Amino acid sequence: MWRRGERCVRYELHTTRTPEFLGLDGTDALFPQSSTGSDVIVGVLDTGVWPERPSYDDAGFGPVPAGWKGKCEEGGDFNASACNKKLIGARFFLTGYEAAKGPVDVTKESRSPRDNDGHGTHTSSTAAGAAVQGADLLGYAAGTAKGMAPRARVATYKVCWVGGCFSSDILKAMEVAVTDGVDVLSLSLGGGTADYYRDSIAVGAFSAMEKGIFVSCSAGNAGPGAATLSNGAPWITTVGAGTIDRDFPAYVALGNGKNYTGVSLYSGKPLPTTPVPFVYAGNASNSSMGALCMSGSLIPEKVAGKIVLCDRGTNARVQKGFVVKDAGGAGMILANTAANGEELVADAHIIPGSGVGEKAGNALRSYAASDPNPTATIVFAGTKVGIQPSPVVAAFSSRGPNTVTPSILKPDIIAPGVNILAAWSGSVGPSGIPGDNRRVGFNIISGTSMSCPHVSGLAALLRAAHPEWSPAAIRSALMTTAYVEYPNGKGILDVATGGPATPLDVGAGHVDPAKAVDPGLVYDIAAADYVDFLCAINYGPMQIAALTKHSSEGCSANRTYAVTALNYPSFSVMFPAAGGTVKHTRTVANVGPPGTYKVTASAAAGSTPITVSVEPKTLSFTKAGEKQSYTVSFTAAGMPSGTNGFGRLVWSGDHHVVASPIAATWT
Fold it and tell me: Where is the Peptidase S8/S53 domain (predicted)?
C-alpha cells in the first residue's frame, strides 16, 4: 500500500491461483455476465499502467460502453492508441505532487499514465486482467493468469509518483473517475487515520457512493498490532489480507544435518551441491547495524564465497541480497525477527536466497555461533499448491479496531494478498530495486494492496450479475457469505499468533464469491443513512458538508441519532467498563426466493458470556425486495477497560446463511 502525505497529506501504496482458490474456475455458471463483454468498468487509482501487457488485450470485447466519458491522456511515452476496448481510460494527476515536490523528473519517471513502479499494473490486472496463458515469474507460479472480473473494462488513474501520492491528486482523480462513469473504484493506498471529513479518500468515496459506485480500499500493511488500519469509513469496503494454498519452498540445509523450510522466488545459477561456508552477518561487520545487511556494512573478507544470514528489517528484503553480493557473498538467508514471527513472504532474490521464520532464524544464528566451521546450502523446490491450512491471516494485514469510529467494525473482509501473481511494469525488475536489471511480464508480490483489487473485481462481477444492487448491498453480500472456518470446522488462523483469528483481524471473514452472488438477504444503506451516522458521531454542518458537498445537510434537533442504528452487516458493541445493555437495530432486504429465516447468536469475552437476544427471532419473506427489521440486545457484566469479546449472529433459511460478526469492547 502506498503511504500518505493536504495537498501535502502524502499517501502510500498498500503492497494466478486465486480464481481457483476462490472457487471462480466455473465463473460462467456462477456469473453469467462474466464471459460476455461486460460493461462494468473498474477504476484503479495507483501508479498507472503498462498498457502493452496482454492482461489488457481487448480480443472479444464489444464497443466501449456508450456512457463512458473517460479518456486516454497522452504523455511523452504514452499515446492515446495505448487504450483499447479493454483498457478504456488512462489519466494522470500531479498538480498537488508538483506543488509540493517540484516538477516530475522525467529521467526517473514518466509524466504520463505509464506505470514505472509496477504496483498499478499489478493491482489493475488483479482486479480485471484478461486471461493470459503461459504466465509465470521466472518459472514460478506458471499457468493462466486472469483477474477476478476478466471481462470487465479497466480505467487507470495515476496518482502515485516516486515521492508518494498526494491527497489533492487522489481526491481530484476520484472526482474525475466518478464523472467518467466507473462502476467500481479500487484504491490500494492509504495513510494514517483522520476524521472522515479531513480524509481525502473518505471524502472522495462518499461522493462515489452517492453515485452508486462501489469503493474498496486496502486496510494497510501495519499489522499485526491492534488499531493499525486505515480507510475505515463505513461507506468504504476495507480489505485485509490472507494467504492462498500456493507456496514457493526453499529449504535450508545446515552442516549439522538440520533442515528448515523457507520461501524464495530466486531463479538463476544455483548454489554448489556441496555445502557452502555459512556466516551470520552480525559477526561479519564492524557496524552496529551489520546484522541487517545494510549497505556497506559487511566486511568482504568475512563473507566472500559464503552464505550470509541477514536479519529482516529496516532495509528492503531483496536489497540485503545486493549488499551480500557486493561484498562477495554466495547466497543469503533472510531471517525473521520477533517483528515478523513466522510469516514468510516470497521474494525474487538477486542471489540464491531464502526467507525463514523467527524460530528457524534463531536456530541458524545459534548454529553459526556455536559450530567452528558452519556450512549450509539452499534447495529451491519451485511451486507447490494444496498448502494447508489456507487461508491464514497475513501478519502484515492491518487490524481493527477502527480508531476513528470504534463502533464500526473494521476491516470488513479479507481476501488473497500473499504471493499474488499479476502483470508488471517493463520499467523495473521484480524486486523494484534500482539495481535489479531483470525484466518480467508478471510479478509475485504481497500486501493488502493485492487483496483490495480481488474484492474490487468481485464487486464488478456482482455489479454485472445484479445491476440494481447498491454499493452497500454488494458489500453486504460479500460479508454475510464470507467464511470464518476451514472445512474441518476450526477457525481461520492468524499467522501472527498461531491461534484463531478474530473479527478485528478478518472482519466478516474470507471472501467467498460463489456464495456472494446469491446471499439471500442484504443489509442496504443509503446516502441519507450515512448522513444520520455522521449526525450520530456529532459532526456539525460544516463537517457534514465537507463529505456530502450539500450545504443544506444538517442534523435535526428533534431527532435522536445512534451509531447503533447504521444498517451495517457487522456489530461492534461498545460496553461501558461497568457493563450493561447495548441495543442495535438492523433491517434486511430479501434478494432471494420467499422464505423464513431463524436466528442464532452468541458471543463471549474469553470464558465470560455476553447475552445476545434478538427480536423477533424469525423473519418471513413472501417476495423479493421485502424488508424486515430486528433489534439485538447485547448484555454483559463489567470488565476491565480494553477487554474484547467476539461472537456471531446468523440468520439461517432453507437455502441461505446470512452471518454477521460481533466484536465487543469495554471502554
Answer: 37-487
